[in-house]
Amino acid sequence: MSRSGLSRSEMSQSRVPLDVGSQLPQSAPTVLRRVLPAIAFVSIALAIVVGAHYYLALRLVVEPGWPSPWREGLVAAIVVFGFSLIGYFVAERLLKPPWIRLVTVPSGLWMGLAFLCVVLLGLSDAASLLVAASITRDHVSLRAVSVATVAGLVVAIGFPRALRPPSIRRVEVPLARWPAALDGFRIVQISDIHIGPILGRGFASALVAKVNALDPDLIAVTGDLVDGHTSLIADEVAPFGALRAKHGVFFVTGNHDYYSDARAWVEEVRKLGFNVLRNERARIRVGSGEFDVAGVEDHRAHQVDPHWREDVDAALQDRDPNVPVVLLAHDPTTFRIARTRGVDLQLSGHTHGGQIWPFGLLVRIVVPWLAGLYHDGAATLYVSRGTGFWGPPLRLGAPAEITELVLRRAGFDA
Fold it and tell me: Are 12 and 118 within one domain?
């Protein structure tokens, strides 16, 4: 079978337009129902960013009492870099490579540096409260220098590592209903690559070479391929057209693909030979063994495009329940439904494994499946830590991965 796998006619297609009016009062215009949540999100995000930068200026500059003009210069730098975070998102939507990286690289590095400084300062403040100790002016100055130095070293070490293609993680996945004839079937999963703001064509080419060297049976691309419109970064993504797998390359959308115009990207990756699963499935047959590979839209697709919504039931409708199914779903949250629908294995990403410690602790509050294998009865979930990164070009305690999943029939001795 070719790298493009099955033709569109061989897929069970089930696109279900939404009755938007049934979700909210008819009196509320559709555009208003989409804009208000966005305004609320942006407002909260800005409040967090402003608060964090005020905290940094207070603890790193004002309280240590650095002499003028250092004090004014450092405060000004914090303010400028704070505004550069807005520039990151503006550049993502307006600039092409390589110009975009003149904005996104420094702002991304600042994003990581500021986060680490806030965490270290917060831990220091918590420790002083626990021991009920007051911090003298000398200690305040020493803390400021120490925090900035440690955070800077972490960024300096982590940045070049983030730019390299990740290592391969091999995971054996036992499945009770997996056909004995397909024992050892290998799916290579890549996820959350985020080509665009910082990672580009070179990273994509190196990633394709590493994936193809594994000679996989099937490749699963589980969303967040890009950040940016096709008109800006289509050429950066072009190397993915060289991906090769015996039974095809399958793709599902992620939330960032929707922020970047998912409709345009779906057509673009189809040109590259990807099988795009939009609440639909395809049958994979190898000798006497067979299984379904299904895929759903991103969990939050409807918040961006009201004509699309994650629909597990549509993707699985009319299928043979005796045939095992592997579900591709960007967001692990889909597992709440999938585990009740007879799905044998779900492959997801989205969380990045937290990407930068201790951010994973916050992610786990929202998504309990952070990274790795999870089991719930006969259903299994694997969550990739992601193959690229978003925002800060850093990885700390959550290394990126190319995942080689080896599917095994539970209890079967090959």
Answer: no
Do 252 and 360 fall within a single domain?
yes
Q: For strands 401-409 and 379-383, give the pairing.
A: unpaired
pLDDT in tens, the chain (414 residues): 444 445 443 554 444 333 333 343 444 555 666 678 778 888 999 999 999 999 999 999 999 999 999 999 999 999 999 999 999 999 999 999 999 999 999 999 999 999 999 999 999 999 888 876 666 667 899 999 999 999 999 999 999 989 998 999 999 999 999 999 999 999 999 999 999 999 999 999 999 999 999 999 999 999 999 999 999 999 999 999 999 999 999 999 999 999 999 999 999 999 999 999 999 999 999 999 999 999 999 999 999 999 999 999 999 999 999 999 999 999 999 999 999 999 999 999 999 999 999 999 999 999 999 999 999 999 999 999 999 999 999 999 999 999 999 999 987 554
Q: What does the block give as tokens for 239?
A: 């190397």
H helices within 131-280, ranges in order?
Answer: 137-163, 201-213, 230-237, 255-259, 262-271
For residue 333, give both structure tokens.
């949250």
Q: Identify whether residues 112 and 190 lie together within a single domain.
A: no
Rounded-to-integer distance, Cα 255 and Cα 226, Å: 10
| Beta-bridge partners for 282 | 293
Whether residues 227 and 141 share a domain: the answer is no
Distance from the Cα of residue 190 to its chain's centroid? 10
Among residues 7, 15, 9, the alpha carbon closest in space to that of 273 is found at 7
E strand or H helix that includes residue 39: helix 30-57
Domain of residue 203 covers 8-24+165-409
Task: Indicate if 170 and 144 belong to the same structural domain.
Answer: no
- Residue 207 · residue 193 · CB < 8 Å: yes
Tell me: do 262 and 301 sit in the same domain.
Answer: yes
Judge if 239 and 362 occupy the same domain.
yes
**Which token pair is 408?**
């095994």
Count of the separate structural domains present in the chain: 2
Residue 1 lies in a domain: no
Whether residue 98 has a cis bond before it, omega within 30° of 0: yes
| Claim to verify: residue 216 and residue 336 sit in the same structural domain | yes
